[in-house]
Specification:
The structure is a single chain. This protein has about 350 residues and is α/β, with parallel strands linked by helices. The protein has a single domain (about 5-345), classed as Metal-dependent hydrolases (TIM Barrel). It is built from eleven helices and 13 strands. The chain has helices spanning about 20-30, 50-65, 85-90, 120-130, 150-165, 180-185, 205-210, 225-235, 255, 270-280, 290-300; strands at about 5-10, 10-15, 35-40, 70-75, 95-100, 135, 170-175, 190-195, 245, 310-315, 325, 330-335, 345. An eight-stranded parallel β-sheet has the order 2-3-4-5-6-7-8-9, with helices on both faces. Helix 3 (about 85-90) links the parallel strand 4 and strand 5 (about 95-100). Helix 3 (about 85-90) packs parallel to helix 4 (about 120-130). The structure holds N-carbamoyl-L-aspartate (NCD) and zinc ion. Zinc ion binds near residues 16, 40 and 250.
């Protein structure tokens, strides 16, 4: 016997597509299930200007699989030299949907990020004026702060002061990993949303470290204690409009993951929808899956919901999915949820 559910076609509100051979290899994994994605700008060099975003969008469109209908929603990488007028022009023409703020040094390719928040104030004020969302990588980089505390400290030291100093700024706390993040979002009714990844609903920090180090579970922000994973699951499956899916699917080759200094990032594009269906079913919340993957994101971004659908089917037997994606740069391991998957997007 099989069960089916049909939902509005999902969008991914935080995705790394990379460039060149890697882009070509990973793009079909997303376009198979998702209609749109907020595309992260942390290329080398980063996507900083409207012109950079135009060129990157053209490369993504050129790499689309035949017949795919997919809209890349572009972002700009905020630097201390970003020009507010260029940001406003990129937004006004519909090309760029958000600006991404990486604290300098917080994660992969974030060296050009922000050190002095006062320097980006004019850009943030312009964004508040035009209603353009700011996507935040919410971790401090202070070496004195323990890596497992960096999100909680960021909320107090950076997020809350920036929001108070810039009334009306619309903020997405990206890939939240803590109960602190969930609580901060829930305490605010206006101009604040959060994305949650698939993998942070499944793994806690034990998965990375117990029984041998598991580089494919290492990502940033790093997975936290079990109590935090449970808070994320409760938030994601609650139907609360402030929480929506951003997979943060971030491909790195096996060579770079299985390394003495392994890269951060979990590659989940391939099986994200199957895992989510299972997680929501485990939480007895399948009725809220559509809100999380397909309604809350476009509503926050003030974009129309998709008019097409995606059907997910549950089988009696575990369903197979590719364990690796082959790219011209080398194999990329697909996230292993650690349990068999019975759902499948069809
Ligand atoms: C991302 C990447 O590889 O670009 N890595 C990750 O662990 N999530 C960067 C990011 O979003 O932090
Ligand atoms: Zn990311």
């Amino acid at each position: 016997m099989s069960t089916e559910i049909t939902i509005t076609r999902p969008d991914d509100w935080h995705l790394h597509l990379r460039d060149r051979a890697m882009l070509k290899a990973v793009l079909p994994e997303t376009t198979r299930h998702f209609a749109r994605a907020i595309v992260m700008p942390n290329l080398v060099p980063p996507v900083v200007t409207k012109a950079d975003a135009e060129a990157y969008q053209a490369r993504i469109l050129a790499a689309l699989p035949d017949g795919a209908s997919f809209e890349p929603l572009m972002t700009l990488y905020l630097t201390e030299d970003t020009d507010p007028a260029d940001v406003a022009a990129a937004h006004a023409c519909g090309l760029v949907k958000a600006v991404k703020l990486y604290p300098a040094g917080a994660t992969t390719n974030s060296h050009s990020g922000v050190r002095d928040f006062d320097k980006v104030r004019p850009v943030l004020e312009k964004m508040a004026e035009i209603g353009m969302p700011l996507c935040l990588h919410g971790e401090v980089t202070d070496p004195a702060v323990d890596i497992f505390d960096r999100e909680a400290v960021f909320i107090d030291r950076v997020l809350d002061p920036v929001r108070r100093a810039t009334p009306g700024l619309r903020v997405v706390m990206e890939h939240i990993t803590t109960a602190n993040g969930v609580d901060y979002v829930k305490a605010h009714d206006k101009d604040l949303g959060a994305t949650i990844t698939t993998h942070h609903l499944v793994i806690n920090r034990n998965h990375i470290l117990v029984g041998g180090i598991k580089p494919h579970y290492y990502c940033l922000p790093v997975a936290k204690r079990e109590e935090h994973r449970l808070a994320l699951r409760a938030a994601a499956t609650s139907g609360d409009a402030r929480f929506f899916l951003g997979t943060d699917s971030a491909p790195h080759t096996d060579e770079l993951k299985e390394h003495a200094c392994g890269c951060a990032g979990c590659f989940t594009a391939t099986n994200t929808m199957a895992i989510l269906a299972q997680v929501f079913e485990q939480e007895d919340a399948l009725a809220h899956l559509e809100a999380f993957t397909s309604h809350n994101g476009p509503d926050f971004y003030r974009l129309p919901r998709n008019s097409t659908t995606l059907t997910l089917r549950k089988s009696d037997k575990a369903v197979d999915y590719p364990k690796k994606i082959l790219s011209g740069e080398g194999p990329v391991t697909v996230f292993d949820p650690g349990f068999p998957l019975f759902w499948q997007a069809i």
